[in-house]
């Protein structure tokens, strides 16, 4: 074999190894929605059944304090071509800012999966960036969890 043949084979092997490595690394990259605005919202599993416990970890890596609604701190959304909210009843009491997370802090909570349609879902967290604890809540932004399946 000529020296050029070894170079071509070597280059081909390097490209093959890179393709294999990328095929393993890329699927494990966090989704864009996981770190929007410095807020990470991560569920503990990739699939759940009705009645299962879902744990959520919220990391506030931003420079702002964020607070959540006393009525609906989170919403379930289902993927149906686009993301669709489930219907929620109107808040019976005054909607106040609660469960605030300071910058560089983490908060976790647990909820039970309600009876919802099977399919791909995510959690939407309605947040107030400009309010303080127990003030009137007005949504400034929504943050989204990774996607998960409800079976």
Give descriptors for this structure.
single chain; 151 residues; alpha+beta; Immunoglobulin-like; eight-stranded mixed sheet; three-stranded antiparallel sheet; elongated
Tally the beta strands. 11
The name CATH uses for the topology of the largest domain is Immunoglobulin-like
Number of domains in the coordinates? 2
Mean pLDDT: 83
Tell me the Rg in angstroms: 22 Å
CATH superfamily of the largest domain: Macroglobulin (MG2) domain
Describe the secondary structure blueprint for this structure.
Blueprint: H1 3-25, E1 39-43, E2 47-48, E3 53-60, E4 66-69, E5 74-80, E6 82-85, E7 97-101, E8 105-112, E9 119-128, E10 141-144, E11 148-150
Parallel strand pairs: 2-11
Antiparallel strand pairs: 1-3, 3-8, 4-7, 4-9, 5-6, 5-9, 9-10, 9-11
